[in-house]
Amino acid sequence: MGKIIKFGEEVDGYAIPVLNEREIRAAAGILFLATFISLMLILFKGNFLPIKYVITFFFLDFIIRVFINPKFSPTLILGRLVVRNQNPEYVGAMQKKFAWIIGLVLSGTMFVFFIIVNAYSPITGIICLICLLFLFFESAFGICLGCLVYKLFYREKAQYCPGEVCDRKSKQAIQKTSGAQLLIVLLFIGSIFLAVYLLNDTLKEQPYDLFGIFGPPPSK
Questions:
Q1: What is the sign, positive or negative, of the torsion defined by CA atoms of 202, 205, 209, 212?
Q2: How far apart, in Å, are the Cα atoms of 12 and each of 17, 70, 86?
Q3: Does pTM top 0.70 for this prediction?
Q4: Where residue 79 falls among pLDDT bands split at 50, 70, 90?
Q5: Inter-axis angle of helices 122-136 and 21-45, to 10 degrees?
Q6: SS3 20
Q7: Which of 69, 102, 198, 217 could connect to 208 by a Cys-Cys bridge, CB 3.0–4.6 Å?
């Protein structure tokens, strides 16, 4: 029974239970995509059915992660299959468990509102955006926002963080950002606003079907 209900894996060379960050990021990407598509269907179609399925699955998945064993989480299994050819990147299990408890609370709250009460409000919208933010940072940047909160509640230092951010060290040359690079970013952002101002009338013109497959072009 102890082999079934546990949190984290024992790996040689690591003093504490760990998890594979690569499959966690893959699973976060899967959940982000499903949640984002469901949110778009609400915004543009008024269709709440997909988000109800996503929330239910989301909630059950996090129950399995936190209370049973992450290795039996469906999304983590899918993530493991996706990144099976990549070398694992081990991270401490405890800070991940804390982050997933936050996810469990958020998804549980959404489950109560959407499935049990069958109602939406600004609260559900805010929670949905928070979930998307957490999932996006995890999948795109490898930054566990919930793990950052971990040190505010626990005195012991988190170990084996993604990218070794737990260990203070000087940045390598390839990690440093020069003033010229920051200027390029600012100029790039400025060019976007300038393009919107100068080209908006031109670009908002509806494109036409080049090969006429879907009918003749609209009359002007």
A1: negative
A2: 10, 19, 18
A3: yes
A4: very high
A5: 140
A6: strand
A7: 217
Measured distance CA(182)–CA(185) in Å, rounded: 5
pLDDT band at 100 (very low <50, low <70, confident <90, very high): very high
Q: Is 2 helix (H, G, I), strand (E, B) or coil?
A: coil
Lowest mean pLDDT across 1-15, 21-35, 40-54: 1-15
Per-residue pLDDT, 123 = 93
Per DSSP, the three-state class of 69 is coil
For residues 6-29, one letter each, b for 16 or more C-beta atoms within 10 angstroms of the residue's C-beta and e for the rest, the string is ebbbeeeebeebbbbbbbbbbbbb
**Beta-bridge partner residues of 18:** 9, 92
Who contacts 71 (Cβ-Cβ below 8 Å, separation ≥6)? 9, 77
Q: Quote the CA–CA distance of 91 and 11 in Å, as a whole number.
A: 11
Structure tokens at 18: 């760990």
Cβ(21)–Cβ(162) below 8 Å = yes
Predicted confidence (pLDDT) at residue 132 exceeds the cutoff of 60: yes
pLDDT at 163: 66
93-111 and 49-63 helices, crossing angle to 10°: 140
Q: Which residues pair with 20 in a beta bridge?
A: 90
